Amino acid sequence: MKERSNPLRCEHVIKVLENIYRKPLSLSELQTLTGISPSALYFTVIPQMQQLGLIEVTYTEGLRGSVRKIVNITEKGRKLLEALMEIKEAQNSLSKE
């Protein structure tokens, strides 16, 4: 099987982290909220963010016995998002001056 080599995009990382910052979400909820294409989310974004230790994925039983993947932010992911938010706030402050 061919290895997928799509790069992880910073905007996708931020969208995912922002959406799971307050509460874990299923992959389908996350896809709907972020607007990231399903193939990019499932095959690039989620696996690479897991590998980087920014998120963790757990499995729960869904409707009618199906399995749902739940995405949760890790402490490392939380720290990264908070740092990015501080940078964004600093940029906004500078642009207002």
Gist?
It is built from four helices and three strands. By secondary structure, it is α+β, with helices and mostly antiparallel strands.
Describe the structure.
This protein has 4 helices and 3 strands. Helix content is 57%, strand content 16%. By secondary structure, it is an alpha+beta fold. It is elongated and about 55 Å long. It has a 3-stranded antiparallel sheet.
Structural class: alpha+beta
Count of separate DSSP helical elements? 4
Query: Which outline best applies?
Result: elongated
The largest β sheet comes out as: 3 strands, antiparallel
* Proportion of residues in helical segments: 55-70%
Q: For the residues shown, what is the average pLDDT?
A: 90
Topology of this structure?
Elements: H1 10-20, E1 25-26, H2 27-34, H3 38-51, E2 55-61, E3 67-73, H4 75-96
Antiparallel strand pairs: 1-3, 2-3
What are the key terms here?
elongated; 16% strand; three-stranded antiparallel β-sheet; alpha+beta; 97 residues; 3 strands
